[in-house]
Amino acid sequence: MLLQSTQRVLLCLRYGIGDVVMEMPALDALRAFVPAARITVLGARPALELLENDPRVDECVCVQDWGLHHWGDLGTPDIKQMIRNWLTRKNFDVILDPYHAVIAVRDVLWEQRTIILDTGKEAQDRALVDHAGGVAAIRAASSRCWGLAECGDGRPRLHLHAQDLSFARRFLAAHGLDDRPPVALSPVASSPLKRWPVERLAVVADQVIEQYGKLLLFYGPQSKVGSEFLRAIRHAEQIVSVGGMHLRKVAALLSGCAAVVGNDTGLMHITAAVGTPMIAIFGPTCPNIYSPPAAAAVKANIDCPYRKTTEFGPPNCVLANRCLIDRQSCINKVDVDAVMKAIQATLRSNSTLGKCS
Q1: Could you tell me the pTM of the whole model?
Q2: I need a labelling partner for 120 at 20 to 30 A (CA). Which of 45, 97, 178, 253 fits?
């Protein structure tokens, strides 16, 4: 059965926030190819929050609701039976990308007699040879493996709801940030090796405050890192903090910013997907793969034999949680001046900023 003739499609999303954003152009192409089909996406919280009530999908199903906690979770016999029962009820015509599902889910999916079209690691890595950047490679590999035509310009986009944009306007106004779009910063990262030292980010923040005024600080659930940053900054009274918040609200706030400065994280991808300029600081991961289209990437000027430049996935240092050639991560080689120059160049080149209107 061809994908174009199916009525019920299950798409297994990648696990992380940034990975889900990177595959949104593939989701655009899928919806355009099967406009009448019911598309169910299966993923993990909080990344799945980004697709709630999204016109490209009809149903979002969260793996945590089955008691699964991480990508490598093997599950239990009871959990696997629960997944089998769910698949029986749903009766999908085709399943896309089981490789990217949590292992327990993937094992059950491969038992099914349903047609499976899979974009695995090898297909993605091969696409990197012919396409500039990870977003384009994922889109091309998905289109090839699913058997559909590529469409659109290939840039990830989030659909912002009116209520989320209204929340963002009220939030900014309540903190005196409604006269002009603020600059935002985020000190967080999924690994300490991907986190630019908070002391240096604090220096950048102080300089930005002195030139442009109040800042938004995004730290999500990583309150400890947020606290470290606030202790390091001189102008803490000029910081408006944004802690744990639904990702659609986070996206709406990011859409109202003049620019965002941060590490290689899911928030970096969300920023780019709502059309806000991003200054992304890279260390052990490769900006040629993970930097969003149009983002300004500031990278460590050091050659590392462990940095992956031709394939997806975390480098060995991140997996080992320690630098394999030095005492400190290569992201420590990024200096303050390089980041400030990128911020100033970005703000100069974007005169019409802020989209909370």
Answers
A1: 0.93
A2: 45
